[in-house]
Amino acid sequence: MRVMKLALIAFVALLFDSASASAITVKKRTEAPGLPPQIWEIVGDFCAIKTWHPVVEDCVQTKEGDVVFRTLSLKGGGTIKEKLTATEDNGYSYEIIESPLPVKNYKARLWLEVDDEPDRSVIFWQSDFDANGASDDDAKKKITQVFAAGVKGIKQKAIAAYDAREAAAQKTLTSSPWRDEVRRWNVAERPRVVEANRALQGVDT
After folding, report:
1. What is the pTM of this model?
2. Which of 70, 165, 169, 203 is the right S-S partner for 198, CB 3.0 to 4.6 Å?
């Protein structure tokens, strides 16, 4: 009887351990024009989130020892403190320290990869967390909304940068200083060159 009781206790404990280990995962992705380094240059700074996420009003980056933090001020009130945990060429990982969001044990990664289509990138944002003060479904829905708005904001920044590069390249092709100089030379000097050639050939002008 005692053995069965101990086995039951162990089984219940195992169930609780399994439940706590099974974190919620949210992952969003979208495609955007431009190569990963080009996009990451404008959105990849740890506090650049204030320029591409519509709910972030401001971001302050601080350092405590060798650890980098950012504190996000949200539109409508509230702040989120996050810690940078890893960086890569076109991505970074972080975790939430303090937040009004209904989550705990929150760890996330934001990164870019080359798309199958030429001159395009794929934007990824993924997190793993547990619900805190809300159901799993409500917590997942909230983070999904945050991520959807975020990747959309990055895409809009990427499109604007891509359009600006295309416009600059087109302007260079159609109105380069060299081309303008040749045009001016043709107007001013070419008649005199033609006149001199005719004189050398004995042609009466």
Report:
1. 0.76
2. 203
